[in-house]
Request: fold
Amino acid sequence: MPFGISSAPEVWQPTMHQFVEDLERVEVITDDFLIAGFGSTDLEVNLSLERNERAFFEKCRLWNWKLNRAKVKRHQPIVKVMGHLLTSKGLMPDPEKIRAILQMPEREDVTALKHVYSHYSLKF
Reply:
């Protein structure tokens, strides 16, 4: 699909969800695929992850999809996605995204507070 077509997201996203619907532990967020492995030991996690990756790559082959090898990142213990960190402990906010709020100086009057809010509110 050519870039710039206004209806592209309405076509793209359902196609992505259709692609992953029968794949175990594979999720799609916009144009990123997240493949997870689960288990109670590192060996179980790695075997699960490899099985899920194999199924994903096989489906890519069946659909004749080409992946950009430079963008493929495998066996990541922490994944940054949509302003969050996905970890083995669960979903956490990305510290880089909240740094501006944590470092913001304390304001003493309403006008200064409004100025800071308008300056930082859309920079995430």
Remarks:
- Residues 42-62 form the longest helix (21 residues).
- The chain has two domains: 8-93, 94-124.
- The first strand starts at residue 26 and ends at 29.
- The mean pLDDT is 84.
